[in-house]
Specification:
The protein is mainly alpha-helical. It is built from 5 helices and no strands.
């Protein structure tokens, strides 16, 4: 059986159940942990399909990955575009500027890649025992590239951009960031679903 990532009452993907909007950078890091869990679930799903073929457990796992990257991940990217990258760019550090601009481009490229990956996962969701066709080499290449891009992107944000932006953010900026992140999720209903809150 392929198991979907467990989701608790606290913030999914984070070891501390107390993290919330009052600690926005910690919340962003928690979202990165959730992304990594979804990518790990995707690996597990692919192995499961190879060994066992299609079944309802595979369909459920694919649905969980789709739900996360369709709903929570776009909010996370927008958090960074609105609150993290501008602060980092305001530091006028040439190397950091170049990295932030590349990370912004990553968001565009990852959204394009997600369109392809989502189609592959939807083929799992909508399959049955008789109609399932295993992923081919091109499919596996697209899945590998998607995961690799996210992992590299996360590493550069965690090691370089987040520390610089957090250090440069005033308490007022952090408060405004927290409130905007919460308000946007409330408006789109994300906060009401514990499975997809990031």
């Amino acid at each position: 059986m392929v198991h979907s990532a467990a989701v608790g009452v606290g913030l999914p993907g984070h070891r501390s159940p107390s993290v919330g909007f009052e600690a926005p950078f910690e919340m962003l890091s928690a979202c990165h942990e959730r992304v990594e869990r979804m990518l790990a679930l995707l690996v597990t799903l692919r192995h499961y399909l190879l060994e066992n073929g299609w079944d309802s457990h595979a369909s459920k796992a694919a649905t969980d990955v789709i739900r996360y990257f369709d709903i929570a991940a776009p909010h996370h990217h927008l958090d960074e575009e609105m609150h993290v990258f501008p602060v980092a760019l305001a530091l006028n550090d040439t190397s950091l500027d170049a990295l932030v601009l590349r990370l912004k481009q990553d968001h565009i490229e990852m959204e394009k890649s997600w369109v392809v990956v989502k189609q592959l996962l939807e083929s799992v969701v909508n399959a049955d025992v008789n109609s399932w066709d295993a992923f081919n080499d091109a499919d596996n290449g697209a899945l590998d590239a998607f995961a690799a891009a996210y992992k590299e992107h996360i590493n550069q944000e965690e090691w370089d951009v987040y520390p610089a932006a957090k250090l440069a953010s005033s308490n007022d900026q952090l408060d405004a960031m927290s409130h905007e992140m919460m308000r946007r999720r409330e408006q789109t209903g994300v906060l009401t679903n514990q499975e997809i809150t990031n």
